[in-house]
Amino acid sequence: MRVKTYDIAKFIGKRVEVCGWIEDKRQLGKIVFLTLRDDSGKVQVTIKSNSKFWELANKVPRQSAIIVRGLVNKYQSTIEIIPDEVEVLAKAKHPLPLDPSGRVPALLATILDSRALSLRIPQINAIFKLRSKVTNLIHKFFSEVKGCVQVHTPKIISSGTEGGADLFEIDYFGKEAYLAQSPQLYKEQLMLAFSCVYEIAPYFRAEKSHTRKHLNEFISVDFEMAFTNYRGVMKVLEELINYVLRYIREEGKDEFEILNVDPPEPPGEIPIVTYDDAYNKLVNMGYEINWGEDLPGDTLKEISREIGDFYFVIDWPWEAKPFYIRRKGKITESFDLMYRDIELASGGTREHIKEELEKNMRDKGLNISNFEYHLKFFDYGMPPHAGFGLGLDRLMLVITGRTNIREVVLYPRDPERVSP
Fold this sequence. Notes:
The chain is α+β, with helices and mostly antiparallel strands. The longest helix is centred in the first third of the chain and has 24 residues, at about 120-145. A hairpin with a 2-residue loop joins strand 14 and strand 15 (about 330). It has helices at about 55-60, 110-115, 115-120, 120-145, 185-190, 230-250, 255-260, 275-285, 295-305, 355-365, 370-375, 390-400, and strands spanning about 15-30, 30-40, 40-50, 65-75, 80-90, 150, 155, 170, 175-180, 195-205, 215-225, 270-275, 310-315, 325-330, 330, 335-340, 340-350, 385-390.
């Protein structure tokens, strides 16, 4: 019976088969102890000098892949396997670029260069198991709790969502095309048929950013809802954050124990501050900020200290938001969800009146003819709608307590890294 090491205690007195890697070897007199690790934990394999596997146990390199078949035994407080079969599947070549046990720390660059091997390190392995569980919870929230339709929009597009800024241009059979920076226009079009849609997918921005919070390829959790405004989808986002943080505490307890971190508490009702209030508060504190500009991260720490880790900043100036956001004078029906100084999500009410949308485009200096494929759908009874995009990678930074977004992304892409 093939079992995981995590469940080995259930099989005392029974013969099992376990697959994994030799993490460690210790010889005490006439006994060799192998530590066999799989992706769920580790177990001791005990081989005595009179065993036919004695020579193999001494010669096989650490981190080699093996199969062990034998009896599960409990000796004092230790659970062990007494093997009757050992099969070496692949030998590890030494020296390895990093220590898969995690006992010898490695630089982040070394970890990323050897990403697949680094996943044997328990702490790194735990991060990506948590990421999988968080993604599953997000799917469950939208599909089962909210009853939304999961969609998949194109990643190769003919024009930019925000007028062509920060786009990766590609040759598409001799035609000009781009990698999508968001599903914004497509998910708006879907409001003609669905009450709400969601998508969890990769997107691309050609920004030469060198920060701990930015990547050129990222995973976005996108949501759009018909017959509502930004206040309505803010409540959905608030529910989503509370849902994920409430259930991941239990579902990910083993991983949090390995990481030695506690995830943030579900925030409950998330506080709201307007852009104007935040701006005035920061100016009064002595910060030099021009109205209409983005609020720098170091200044947002001041806001967070007063109102909590999670908070919304709403009603941003028109200059700071894209053309599809609904205007109300000099400001917009928009919001950012913040965690301390990290922007987790951005959203707002979409302009659903075609004439107003075209005016927004002209005011942003965009060529309306480039968006005819999109604008035509606003002649077919486009309802009021709103939505948001949530950065999954940044959410994982918050949940895992890491400091660099590259730690929570399997194969990060930034201006210097396009391999492995």
